Every structure is written in structure tokens, then in C-alpha cells.
Amino acid sequence: QVQLVESGGGLVQAGGSLRLSCKASGSTSNIDDMGWYRQAPGKQRELVATISSGSSTNYADSVKDRFTISRDNARNTVDLKMNSLKPEDTAVYYCHAKTRWYRRDYWGQGTQVTVSS
User: Fold this and answer.
1) Helix, strand, or coil here: 88?
2) Taking residues 82-108, what's their average pLDDT?
3) Helix-strand-coil percent breakdown of the chain, rounded to 5?
4) What is the pLDDT of residue 76?
5) Which residues are CB-neighbours of 28 under 8 A, at least 6 positions away?
6) Positive or negative CA dihedral for 101, 46, 43, 106?
7) Are 5 and 106 in contact (CB under 8 A)?
8) How far apart are CA 104 and CA 44, in angstroms?
9) What is the DSSP letter of 44?
10) Cβ-contact 36, 69 below 8 angstroms
């Protein structure tokens, strides 16, 4: 089992910045990929960014060049630095982890990010 706890959401004006953090606990040695997803009201959950255990990254086109994902395997954390935020970035952001064995998915409880225009 893997537990994920997010922090760092909040309200920010357009053009501002926020940093989200996610701390993993439990069977952390079994974690492979980690990432961030988001879900806006009335929309499906979508990928924001992922990072592999070897630090290869992948970003949604909508956040490229604005968001940066990073990972500290020793501390079992994954961060998302969000710059130049837009109102359309408003959503609940979820931390995600996938395990090496059985490829199980784990999710955090989500943290709200609201960008005002």
C-alpha cells in the first residue's frame, strides 16, 4: 500500500505561481512513476505531468514551459512548480503513483488550485 498526501494548493491571481508537494509513505520502494493530474468542475481528470523513477518527464501540452515536475526519491516526494498560472488551470490537483509490481495506481486526496482573473 502507498499513501499520498498533497499540500500547497490555494488561491492565486493569473500570472502568479504556486508549488504543490506530495509526500508518499508506505511501500515507497515499490513506487515507479509519479505524477500530477487535475480535474476541473464538469470535466474528466487529465494528466498534467509525470516523472519516472529515473526522472524522465512528460507534460501536457497545455502546461509545457509553465510547469515543472521534480522528484526526490530519498524523501519520497514529488513537486509541481506552476508558473504563469491561468484561470483555466483552476482544478483539483491529484498526486498519483504507480507501483512496479502489479502496476497498481494510488491517488492522493487532492488539493484545490484556484486562479482568479
Assistant:
1) helix
2) 97
3) 5, 55, 40
4) 96
5) 2, 76
6) positive
7) no
8) 20
9) -
10) yes
46-93 confidence digits (pLDDT tens): 999 999 999 999 999 999 999 999 999 999 999 999 999 999 999 999
Give residue for cell 494528466: 47
- Residues 77 and 74: their CA atoms lie apart, in Å, by 8
Strand 111-116 to strand 18-26: parallel, antiparallel, or no bridges (unpaired)?
A: unpaired
Phi, psi of 48 (to 5 degrees): -105, -55
Cα of first residue to Cα of last residue in the chain, in angstroms, is 40
What is the number of other CB atoms lying within 10 angstroms of the CB of residue 112? 12
Residues 6+ apart with CB under 8 A from 33: 50, 51, 52, 53, 96, 97, 98
CA 34 to centroid of chain Cα atoms: 8
Residue 69 to residues 16, 37, 41: CA-CA distances in angstroms? 17, 12, 24
